[in-house]
Amino acid sequence: MVRYLLQFQYLGTHFRGVPRVPPVERAAGYSGVEDALSDAFSCLDYKLAEPPNIHVSSRTDSGVHALCNTAHADLIYGENQEQLDPDAIVHAINRNITQMGRSDIRLMNCRPVPPTFNSRHQALGRTYLYRVVSGCYHSRLPIAEFDRSWGVMERLDIEAMQEAAKHFLGTHDFTTFRNKSPDTWTKDPIKTMKAVEVRRASCFLKEHDPFCRDLEVLELIFKSRSFLYRQVRRMTGLLVAIGRGKLEPKEVCTLLAARKITAFPKNAQVAPAHGLYLCNIEYNEKDLIYD
Q1: pLDDT tens digits, residue range 269-289?
Q2: Residue in 35, 39, 45, 61 annotated catalytic
Q3: Measured CA distances, 50 to 74, 79, 272 (Å)
Q4: 74 given a catalytic annotation
Q5: Cα separation of 1 and 11, whole Å?
Q6: Which residues contact 102 (CB under 8 A, 6 or more apart)?
Q7: What's the pTM?
């Protein structure tokens, strides 16, 4: 048995989140990211004694994208079967994904790791990106941005958003920013935000797309070891409300101190999933060394 660290990308538009979906939903044509990865690894069945179990480190919601999510997978090779080269695994998996008719997920890297390595529990940090396009309704977004960013008609006050973002830094109780679903309330709401940034960016293909010229793109960056379910989308919704002038930057402190789900302001919506990207998951390189 050899354990591998997998690094992969996907567009979340047509995935029902990361976990496998029930058989009834699979029969109806739906799938989770774990379903797609497991299906893709079926091309290695001739080499393996049994199908691999794939454990994804970060569970993104339905519609959320990933520039780099990770997983660990155990490949149990059959009798007299040689261990596959990691590059050969990547090539075979991506070729099978294409043959499956999918163009929304790609395995980018694969490397053997110690048999005790856990991609979820040994992660040191996760970075999320949220893209907001201001000056345009979502229905009027250019095709390269549609379902890959959040379109808001108002011009946003970026300086107010940047001022508000600073109040999130450090260790806080994020109960006000947790999801309303009771099944998520067992998670520790104390989180340490290592980075919360709001910066100007540009549309995809801006230099060539004539419909991007009057639009303003903002990137919101969030970095922590872990997050509550939908925490980033609620923080983004609040920052956008501040950018719209509906709230003051200093109200971030008041909301953090409230520590109540009901304290989340009604004039700040939860940002939609399609503008959110999981960008990176950090590990200690020493934990990845395979002997």
Answers
A1: 999 999 999 999 999 999 999
A2: 61
A3: 10, 11, 39
A4: no
A5: 31
A6: 36
A7: 0.94
